[in-house]
């Protein structure tokens, strides 16, 4: 399956893993890349330049395939300017194949010096946006691709709240660089739909949780299977930081605080990620933030990354072939 994305990055399948805090460590990143996709190494898990460099080197010991590094430039809740500088400098020095940028446009961050540095190092840059106007800015700035993020996605969907099925073709109409669809991407039908909407590939994260290489507690795997598409909720609008997460005790408390006009001081402890290890490693699914998308309703099993990617592409090809035959 060849698209502009696969040709640009030299990957077998047009499937990218998105940033996954406390999950997208080198073993999962490498497993996805070895399976034919583009594995993700999420920078926010590393406190400084040395740690991120060591993680990049570990990925390279586990795979000789391309991978992508995520950096999300959000207001300094966890990370400050020094850490972001470390991330960008390390990725430029290591000449990582690609980067997924979220939040503040990198071409505007610190007058674009890291944008230029990374481009000069040959790093392919993709920015995640939720509105056509932002996509046009990304294209004009010289990014290599756009990640069109529908409101269905987990994590931090932008508050334009446009669905994937509208955002993707609108973005394709307005820009001439590759568009990658994210938000609700989970299986072969998703990939086929994205391609039909004009995308060059998909980015997904929630679905990669239920792979053998994603080391989480068995209760997490079962929670992903048992929950449905209506078991996630948007939160954080009152503090200017919209997110989507699985409904649990912590998120119910967030919604209560927001409903009565409470502020960041009350909300932050519930969404800061301090309970991450308790969630993912101990299976405490009612504590803290579980940032998953509506695609959770289409997760039915636990498979290897290779089985998952092979299946997605085979299903997509079958769907496209079947629908073509219907109209011949």
Task: Tag the structure with descriptive keywords.
14 helices, 10 strands, 2 domains, TIM Barrel, alpha/beta, eight-stranded parallel sheet
Structure description:
There is one protein chain. With 328 residues, the protein is of the alpha/beta class. It has two domains: 4-215 and 300-326, Aldolase class I (TIM Barrel, Alpha-Beta Barrel), CATH 3.20.20; 218-295, no CATH class. It is built from 14 helices and ten strands. The protein has helices spanning 4-9, 26-34, 49-62, 81-94, 113-120, 132-141, 164-174, 188-196, 206-209, 218-226, 249-259, 264-271, 276-280, 305-326, and strands at residues 15-17, 39-42, 67-73, 98-103, 124-129, 145-149, 179-182, 201-204, 232-235, 243-246. Helix 6 links the parallel strand 5 (124-129) and strand 6 (145-149). It is globular and about 55 Å long.
Topology:
Blueprint: H1 4-9, E1 15-17, H2 26-34, E2 39-42, H3 49-62, E3 67-73, H4 81-94, E4 98-103, H5 113-120, E5 124-129, H6 132-141, E6 145-149, H7 164-174, E7 179-182, H8 188-196, E8 201-204, H9 206-209, H10 218-226, E9 232-235, E10 243-246, H11 249-259, H12 264-271, H13 276-280, H14 305-326
Parallel strand pairs: 1-8, 2-3, 3-4, 4-5, 5-6, 6-7, 7-8
Antiparallel strand pairs: 9-10
Helix pairs in contact: 2-3, 3-4, 4-5, 8-14, 11-12
């Amino acid at each position: 399956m060849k698209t502009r994305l696969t040709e640009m990055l030299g990957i077998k399948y047009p499937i990218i893993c998105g940033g996954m805090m406390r999950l997208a460590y080198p073993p999962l990143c490498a497993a996805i890349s070895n399976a034919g996709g583009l594995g993700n190494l999420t920078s926010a898990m590393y406190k400084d330049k040395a740690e991120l460099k060591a993680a990049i080197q570990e990925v390279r010991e586990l795979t000789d395939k391309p991978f992508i590094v995520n950096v999300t430039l959000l207001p300094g809740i966890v990370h400050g300017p020094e850490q972001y500088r470390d991330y960008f400098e390390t990725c430029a020095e290591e000449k990582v194949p690609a980067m997924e940028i979220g939040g503040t446009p990198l071409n505007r961050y610190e007058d674009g010096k890291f944008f230029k540095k990374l481009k000069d190092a040959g790093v392919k840059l993709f920015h995640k946006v939720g509105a056509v106007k932002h996509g046009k800015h990304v294209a004009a700035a010289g990014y290599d691709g756009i990640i069109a993020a529908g409101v269905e996605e987990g994590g931090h969907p932008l508050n334009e709240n446009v669905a994937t099925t509208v955002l993707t073709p609108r973005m394709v109409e307005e820009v001439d660089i590759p568009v990658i669809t994210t938000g609700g991407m989970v299986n072969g039908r998703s990939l086929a739909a994205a391609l039909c909407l004009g995308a060059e590939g998909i980015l997904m994260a929630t679905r990669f949780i239920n792979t053998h290489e994603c080391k989480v507690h068995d209760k997490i795997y079962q929670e992903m299977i048992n929950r449905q598409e209506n078991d996630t909720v948007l939160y954080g609008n009152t503090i200017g930081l919209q997110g989507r997460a699985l409904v649990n005790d912590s998120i119910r408390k967030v919604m209560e605080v927001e409903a009565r006009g409470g502020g960041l001081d009350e909300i932050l402890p519930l969404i800061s990620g301090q309970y991450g290890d308790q969630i993912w490693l101990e299976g405490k699914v009612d504590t803290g933030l579980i940032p998953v998308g509506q695609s959770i309703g289409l997760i039915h099993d636990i498979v290897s990354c290779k089985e998952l990617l092979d299946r997605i592409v085979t299903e997509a090809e079958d769907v496209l072939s079947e629908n073509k035959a219907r109209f011949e």
